């Protein structure tokens, strides 16, 4: 335990010396707590190659096949993970990426800022996709019976 | 069982019911069919004083919708569940509820179709209204107090649901809609666990709507969304309602296939499993699928799509909302081309041996061979052609690589011999796809938007329907799904229009928002500069370009075209193919390779074994749009990005990576190692390709345009696309698209 902590600490100093040095004070009341980008991942002992990932933060669109909006408005992280293969005998799918199933099924954020903060704490480079929202325009049942001009010609 | 026994059973239940409700609900032995039994005892419900519920905290609108206020003074205030919302005049009650963040259950109502009001699922209680009202069809009035969550509304919906489930089969376990079914979900909230209907359920004969849409008409709940979609959006009056009462059916009147290029959308809008995807039938369950939000590349519109994959396989493609591009629809080609991604793929790098057969080799060997040949030929004999599906990153890499080799003969197919890339307004849809629906006069020159850009065509149709826009068309006889005037077939008509002698010219001149759309098929003509200049003359004399409205548009054909021109993929000479000794095809399958000298060395880099592979000496396998991150600019200049959904097949690599590796083997390493670096390079060439999801409008200027001296060829315009379903390597490899072209195209 002690050695692993030591290792984590060493890696932390190493990381902070490298590119990821932007320090951020949390806006909470406890100003003594200081969080560095990528710190969480380092302390958690996540392998280094996963601390330099590129992820895409997006808000999933409403599924076109359904009208319900219960799941709309959440934010997700796409880990751009495609390391997958299929077992030739049974057709089972395997992946070489520990984050392959994290983005779709495990992580949901209420706001863009939350997702960004999460990615920052893990030291991921992120890109945010714009959220598309529908535009409500007035429409009326009476439009069905409105005079729409002369009928279409036979073309 | 007869009717009498049914009524008597119901009566017994009612008697039992009233006796139990007078005591306590907890002790009731017979459960009620409705979840609001207190309503059965109307007297007690009325007597009970209803305390005012505390105002709930404000909620964001459903789907985070934006509200369009045509006139800010016309805003009215209504109360939804006690919470006040400001809405524009003319909104329906359902829309008011959506603004208040209350999702009203619905089946027949669809925000992009006209209001039918026949499913009655959206019933809500409105104060001072004697009955529950159908919120989708009721206009919201100032001060209206709408209650969406009261026992009356709930009971009303439960009644509706019971009627809907009466004739709906219980086949959810074998239904493809299962898991993403509106009826399934809403019956969880409003359905009873038993039914009072004891007759046999009705059965309806399935209809054959063609190779794309599977029908199980017994599941149909007669919401008529598909009928409204077909007549309003798709513009083909193929579907209709037959019969009355319980004999009511959706059908095509006579045995007939649905011949719309938007027919796949009825699968999405069907709230039950009556219309499902035929190619996707029984292939996967929707909860097994991993969604990836991406961009379509089969045409130049760049429709927003969601690629659903299971493991390493693309299972289906469905649309994704983007009000500015495709709203919520996609074309059939976009939706069903995915099986082409699994067939005829190139797996390994291959070299053609002396016997004319391809032999799989390692990447290193293949790249070594190419680099060796490249250094043997003269720089001006090296030619690079990008394909119609290429992303901006790889085109940037290709251009840089060719330039470093000393050649400047690099272009993108579909852009013609000498493309005009200096002025961005000369090759973009300057009005913008969304703004086209405000136009009132269209002049289509050598373009058939219905097959070239289906989603643009849907906008033009919308304008024709809503504003009675006039459409004039110059080109070969073509099918339109809206009223149009066929003005002529060739450039003569254009000359008449330029002179102002044509009758359509006055319509164009008097229009409030005229739009001229020039097809990119004209780029292949020898006299295209002359034609474009005469179009500009028309635009100028008809005052099409104004400070607030740019109505001069070019409708591109391919996904790569706009980005290629933005990046300046313009060949030095238009005869470079004839003198080429080394030809690098980056997914270019539609260029004419007959003129390539027989001793030329042809490298084909791409994902499909398509037309150009027959001439290639070396094949380098690349990844398709569903497997890579790539930037695309659509026909209106909007930059969008694909994201990888599935792994590549075999040993394939991303296009830009192959060129980067080849440059290193050739000894002239390109200075970028990652997508980020290559985008930084793109920033120096075309910064608009980095502003993601944004549309960079082109500034229009005729002052700096050189004068054209070429003569106009009187030959009539040709159709740019012969087969809508097969336009690129992916769609040509697709089995579904082959079925469509054999069954749906008119011969």
UniProtKB/TrEMBL annotation, chain A:
Cellular component, GO annotation: mitochondrial inner membrane
Keyword annotations: Electron transport, Membrane, Mitochondrion, Mitochondrion inner membrane, Respiratory chain, Transit peptide, Transport
Subcellular location: Mitochondrion inner membrane
Database matches in Gene3D superfamilies: atu1810 like domain
Main location: mitochondrion
Highest taxon in the source lineage: Eukaryota
Key word Transport present: yes
Lipid bilayer topology: Peripheral membrane protein
Entry keyword Mitochondrion: yes
GO BP terms, alphabetized: electron transport chain
Similarity comment: Belongs to the complex I NDUFS4 subunit family.
Described purpose of this protein according to its UniProt entry: Accessory subunit of the mitochondrial membrane respiratory chain NADH dehydrogenase (Complex I), that is believed not to be involved in catalysis. Complex I functions in the transfer of electrons from NADH to the respiratory chain. The immediate electron acceptor for the enzyme is believed to be ubiquinone.
Protein name in UniProt: NADH dehydrogenase [ubiquinone] iron-sulfur protein 4, mitochondrial
Organism: Chenopodium quinoa
UniProtKB/TrEMBL annotation, chain B:
Source organism: Chenopodium quinoa
Domain of life the protein comes from: Eukaryota
Any one GO biological process: ATP synthesis coupled electron transport
Residues of the 4Fe-4S His(Cys)3-ligated-type domain: 152-191
Cofactor: [4Fe-4S] cluster; [2Fe-2S] cluster
Stored PANTHER family: NADH-UBIQUINONE OXIDOREDUCTASE 75 KDA SUBUNIT, MITOCHONDRIAL, RESPIRATORY NITRATE REDUCTASE
Protein family according to the UniProt entry: Belongs to the complex I 75 kDa subunit family.
Catalytic activity: a ubiquinone + NADH + 5 H(+)(in) = a ubiquinol + NAD(+) + 4 H(+)(out)
Places the protein is found: Mitochondrion inner membrane
UniProtKB keywords: 2Fe-2S, 4Fe-4S, Electron transport, Iron, Iron-sulfur, Membrane, Metal-binding, Mitochondrion, Mitochondrion inner membrane, NAD, Oxidoreductase, Respiratory chain, Transit peptide, Translocase, Transport, Ubiquinone
Domain 2Fe-2S ferredoxin-type span(s) in chain numbering: 74-152
Annotated EC: 7.1.1.2
Disordered, as annotated region: 42-66
Biased composition, class Pro residues, residue ranges: 50-61
Domain 4Fe-4S Mo/W bis-MGD-type: 289-345
Protein name: NADH dehydrogenase [ubiquinone] iron-sulfur protein 1, mitochondrial
The protein's role, per its UniProt record: Core subunit of the mitochondrial membrane respiratory chain NADH dehydrogenase (Complex I) that is believed to belong to the minimal assembly required for catalysis. Complex I functions in the transfer of electrons from NADH to the respiratory chain. The immediate electron acceptor for the enzyme is believed to be ubiquinone. This is the largest subunit of complex I and it is a component of the iron-sulfur (IP) fragment of the enzyme. It may form part of the active site crevice where NADH is oxidized.
A GO CC term attached to the entry: mitochondrial inner membrane
GO terms, molecular function: 2 iron, 2 sulfur cluster binding; 4 iron, 4 sulfur cluster binding; metal ion binding; NADH dehydrogenase (ubiquinone) activity; oxidoreductase activity, acting on NAD(P)H
């Amino acid at each position: 335990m002690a050695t692993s902590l030591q290792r984590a600490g060493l890696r932390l100093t190493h990381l902070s010396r490298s590119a990821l040095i932007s320090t951020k004070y949390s806006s909470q009341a406890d100003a003594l707590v200081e969080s560095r980008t990528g710190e969480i991942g380092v302390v958690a002992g996540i392998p280094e190659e996963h601390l330099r990932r590129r992820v895409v933060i997006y808000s999933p669109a409403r599924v076109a096949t359904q009208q319900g909006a219960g799941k709309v408005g959440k934010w997700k992280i796409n880990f751009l993970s495609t390391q997958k293969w299929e077992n030739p005998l049974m057709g089972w799918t395997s992946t070489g990426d520990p984050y392959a199933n994290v983005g779709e099924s495990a992580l949901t954020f209420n706001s863009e800022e939350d997702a960004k903060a999460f990615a920052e704490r893990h030291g991921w480079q992120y890109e945010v996709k714009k959220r598309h929202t529908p535009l409500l325009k007035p429409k009326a049942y009476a439009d069905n019976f409105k005079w729409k001009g002369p009928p279409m010609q036979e073309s | 069982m007869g009717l009498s026994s049914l009524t008597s059973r119901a009566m017994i239940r009612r008697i039992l019911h009233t006796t139990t409700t007078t005591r306590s609900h907890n002790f009731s032995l017979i459960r009620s069919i409705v979840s609001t039994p207190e309503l059965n005892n109307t007297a007690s419900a009325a007597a009970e004083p209803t305390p005012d519920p505390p105002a709930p905290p404000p909620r964001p609108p459903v789907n985070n919708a934006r509200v369009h206020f045509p006139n800010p003074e016309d805003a009215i205030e209504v109360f939804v569940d006690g919470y006040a919302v400001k809405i524009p005049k003319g909104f329906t009650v359902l829309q008011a509820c959506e603004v208040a963040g209350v999702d009203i259950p619905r089946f027949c109502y669809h925000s992009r179709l006209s209001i039918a009001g026949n499913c009655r699922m959206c019933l809500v209680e409105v104060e001072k209204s004697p009955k529950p009202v159908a919120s989708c069809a009721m206009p919201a009035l100032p001060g209206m107090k709408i209650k969406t969550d009261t026992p009356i509304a709930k009971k009303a919906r439960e009644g509706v649901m019971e009627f809907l489930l009466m004739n709906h089969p219980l086949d959810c376990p074998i239904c493809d809609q299962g898991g993403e079914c509106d009826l399934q979900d809403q019956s969880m909230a409003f359905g009873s666990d038993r039914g009072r209907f004891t007759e046999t359920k009705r059965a309806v004969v399935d209809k054959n709507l063609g190779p794309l849409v599977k029908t199980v008409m017994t599941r149909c709940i007669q919401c008529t969304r598909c009928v409204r979609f077909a007549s309003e959006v798709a513009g083909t009056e193929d579907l209709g309602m037959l019969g009355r009462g319980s004999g009511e059916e959706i059908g095509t009147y006579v045995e007939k296939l649905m011949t719309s290029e938007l027919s796949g959308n009825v699968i999405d809008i069907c709230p039950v499993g009556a219309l499902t995807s035929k190619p996707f039938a029984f292939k996967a369950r929707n909860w097994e699928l991993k969604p990836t939000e991406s961009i379509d590349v089969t045409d130049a519109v760049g429709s927003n799509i969601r690629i659903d994959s299971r493991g390493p396989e693309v299972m289906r493609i469905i649309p994704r909302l983007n009000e500015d591009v495709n709203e919520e629809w996609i074309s059939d080609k976009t939706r069903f081309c995915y099986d082409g991604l699994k067939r005829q793929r190139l797996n390994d790098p291959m070299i053609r041996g002396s016997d004319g057969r391809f032999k799989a080799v390692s990447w290193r060997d293949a790249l070594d061979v190419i680099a060796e040949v490249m250094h043997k030929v003269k720089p001006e004999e090296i030619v690079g052609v990008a394909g119609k599906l290429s992303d901006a990153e790889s085109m940037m890499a290709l251009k840089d690589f060719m330039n470093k080799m000393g050649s400047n003969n690099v272009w993108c197919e579909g852009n013609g011999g000498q493309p005009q890339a200096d002025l961005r307004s000369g090759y973009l849809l300057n009005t913008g796809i969304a703004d086209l629906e405000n136009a009132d006069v269209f002049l289509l020159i050598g373009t058939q938007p219905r097959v070239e850009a289906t989603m643009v065509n849907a906008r033009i149709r919308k304008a024709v329907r809503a504003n009675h826009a006039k459409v004039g068309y110059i080109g070969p006889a073509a099918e339109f799904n809206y009223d149009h005037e066929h003005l002529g077939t060739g450039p003569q008509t254009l000359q008449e229009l330029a002179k102002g002698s044509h009758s359509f010219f006055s319509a164009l001149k008097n229009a409030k928002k005229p739009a001229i759309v020039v097809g990119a098929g004209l780029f292949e003509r020898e006299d295209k500069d002359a034609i474009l200049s005469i179009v500009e003359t028309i635009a100028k004399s008809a005052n099409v370009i104004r400070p607030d409205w740019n109505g001069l548009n070019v409708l591109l054909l391919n996904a790569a075209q706009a980005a290629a021109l933005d990046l300046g993929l313009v060949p030095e000479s238009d005869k470079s193919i004839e003198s080429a000794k080394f030809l690098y095809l980056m997914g270019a399958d539609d260029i004419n390779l007959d003129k390539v000298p027989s001793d030329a060395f042809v490298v084909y880099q791409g994902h499909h074994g398509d037309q150009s592979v027959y001439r290639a000496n070396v094949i380098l396998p690349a990844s398709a749009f569903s497997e890579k991150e790539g930037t695309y600019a659509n026909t209106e200049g909007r930059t969008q990005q694909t994201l990888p959904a599935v792994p590549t097949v075999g040993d394939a690599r991303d296009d830009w990576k192959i060129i980067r590796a080849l440059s290193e083997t050739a000894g002239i390493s390109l200075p970028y190692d990652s997508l980020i670096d290559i985008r930084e390079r793109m920033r120096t060439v075309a910064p608009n390709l980095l502003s993601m999801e944004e549309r960079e409008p082109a500034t229009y200027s005729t002052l700096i345009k050189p004068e054209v001296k070429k003569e106009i060829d009187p030959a009539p315009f040709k159709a740019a696309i012969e087969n809508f379903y097969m336009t690129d390597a992916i769609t040509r490899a697709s089995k579904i698209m082959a079925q469509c072209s054999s069954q749906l195209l008119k011969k």
